[in-house]
Design goal:
The protein is of the alpha+beta class and about 450 residues long. It has helices spanning about 20-25, 95-100, 125-135, 150-165, 175-180, 270-375, 380-385, 430-445; strands at about 25-40, 40-55, 55-65, 70-80, 85-95, 110, 115-125, 135-140, 145-150, 185-190, 190-200, 200-210, 215-225, 230-235, 250-255, 265-270. The chain has eight helices and 16 strands. α4 (about 150-165) packs across α6 and α6 (about 270-375) runs parallel beside α8. The radius of gyration is 71 Å and the shape is rod-shaped.
Length: about 450
């Protein structure tokens, strides 16, 4: 099943033998299990139908299964003014990209399916000249696919790791980038790519393939005379704003198209290096700003702590002051209560003494009244006759004695005995006991003669 080895002779540079072609005549119908056309172009279940006459070779149909998809080719070759003229068409349906990209390697570079439609024409004296003269157009439709070794997200992570690295040599950046991306995978949305063929060069017009976290701009050329591929992939991270405008790298694949799986990309990291440098500068500026901000916040925190301590001390002093004032107020209230109690006790004692004095006076008056009532009533004449001759006459009722300090009125014997005032409180046992000595003293005094009572019986003897 291995492809046939390429012939050693450089047949592509030999001129066409137009005489031999002009002598060809006949029909060819061929069905084979496996048909190797050139290099890796091997078709399974191939069917060939061709007609050769009048110096013209007309391949009406070359169909089979190539790269997992249905392939149909048609071509014609005849003598023209500029040599042998060629025209041909190719139609490929659902070719497997894994099969195509796995040429020469164990792990395919791409997965997915693709359709190809291509028409070309040209003329030349040699196969190489003919291939270099081909022109035409076509289209490549790629379904949802993925590319191995590319990833916008992996590129973002790699750039950030380079920014965070303390030491990074710019000369080794491409190798580090390839190492970081070799296991990555870039999922692509379906896309249609226009194909232009001019002067033997197939050009896939620049197309932007979109993925979930970025995009890849692809431009590819295939030189038909040498069958060499030159493909450039510019990987960028989305969104393409001021921050990410330089976050991209370019990978170039170049070499024989039948060795596409063995190609090692050449990585251009100039824009990526610029992006990393800018981010490092921004990081350093941010770190300095953060350091200054941290110092400012620390100073503010220290000042706030100082103010808090001052406020706490002021609050504590105010609380102590309030407690002292409360204790002083409590002491003042206690002193006031004690003074009020002392005044009340003093007033109570004074009131008690006043009541005792009043009771004593009332008792003296009662005793005097009792003595007056106890004296025997006699005729006034006999009392006057018994009056000694040398005794001075009794003073008048309202007479003021020269040795008296007050004026008194003699009691009327006919008057009823005096009653204590109605508002006088009855005498208690304690008051009576306290007043008993005073009453005895009053009674002794009452037995002595008194000018105020008008008793002159002392002189009657």
């Amino acid at each position: 099943d291995a492809p046939l080895p390429a012939p050693v002779t450089r047949w592509a540079e030999r001129s066409f033998d137009t005489d031999a072609i002009a002598k060809l005549k006949g029909r060819l119908s061929l069905k084979v299990k496996r048909l190797a056309l050139a290099g890796a172009l091997v078709m399974d279940d191939a069917e060939l139908q061709a007609v050769m006459e009048n110096g013209k070779i007309d391949v009406a149909k070359l169909a089979g299964n190539w790269a997992g998809g249905q392939t149909v080719l048609s071509a014609s070759l005849q003598q023209g003014e500029q040599g042998l003229a060629f025209s041909g068409e190719a139609l490929i349906k659902q070719a497997d990209l894994a099969h195509v990209s796995a040429l020469g390697r164990t792990v395919p570079m791409a997965t997915g399916r693709a359709d190809l439609k291509l028409s070309v024409a040209g003329a030349g004296l040699t196969p190489k000249g003919l291939a270099s003269s081909l022109s035409g157009s076509g289209k490549l439709d790629v379904s949802q696919s993925s590319i191995r070794g590319l990833s916008a997200e992996a590129l973002r992570g790699f750039a950030q790791s380079e920014v965070d690295a303390e030491v990074s040599r710019a000369s080794a950046l491409p190798a580090r980038a390839a190492l970081a991306l070799q296991e990555a995978q870039f999922d692509l949305a379906p896309a249609g790519i226009a194909i232009n063929v001019k002067d033997g060069v197939v050009q896939l017009e620049k197309t932007v393939l979109h993925g979930p976290s970025g995009e890849a701009a692809v431009t590819s050329f295939v030189e038909l005379a040498s069958m060499k591929l030159d493909s450039e992939w510019s990987l960028a991270v989305a969104p393409r704003d001021e921050v990410n405008q330089d976050l991209q790298l370019t990978m170039v694949f170049a070499g024989p198209i039948n060795q596409v799986g063995q190609m090692t990309p050449r990585i251009d990291t100039k824009t990526l290096q610029r992006h990393i440098t800018v981010l490092r500068i921004a990081r350093d500026v941010e770190l300095r700003a953060q350091s200054e901000e941290a110092r400012r916040l620390a100073a503010e925190a220290a000042e706030a702590a100082k103010k808090a301590r001052a406020a706490e001390q002021a609050q504590k002093a105010e609380a102590e002051k309030a407690a002292l004032a409360a204790r002083a107020a409590e002491a003042a209230k206690a002193a006031e209560a004690a003074a009020a109690a002392s005044r009340a006790a003093k007033a109570a004692r004074a009131a008690e003494a006043a009541r005792a004095a009043e009771a004593t006076r009332a008792a003296e008056r009662a005793a005097a009244q009792a003595r007056r009532q106890a004296q025997p009533d006699g005729p006034p004449a006999s009392r006057s006759a018994a009056t000694p001759p040398n005794r001075p006459p009794a003073p008048a009722a309202a007479e003021t004695l020269p040795w008296a300090t007050t004026t008194r009125t003699a009691p009327d014997p006919a008057a009823p005995p005096a009653q204590p005032p109605s508002d006088q409180a009855p005498e208690t046992a304690e008051a009576a006991e306290d007043a008993a000595p005073q009453r005895r003293t009053s009674r002794r005094r009452a037995r002595q003669p008194s000018f105020d009572d008008g008793d002159f019986s002392i002189y009657s003897n």
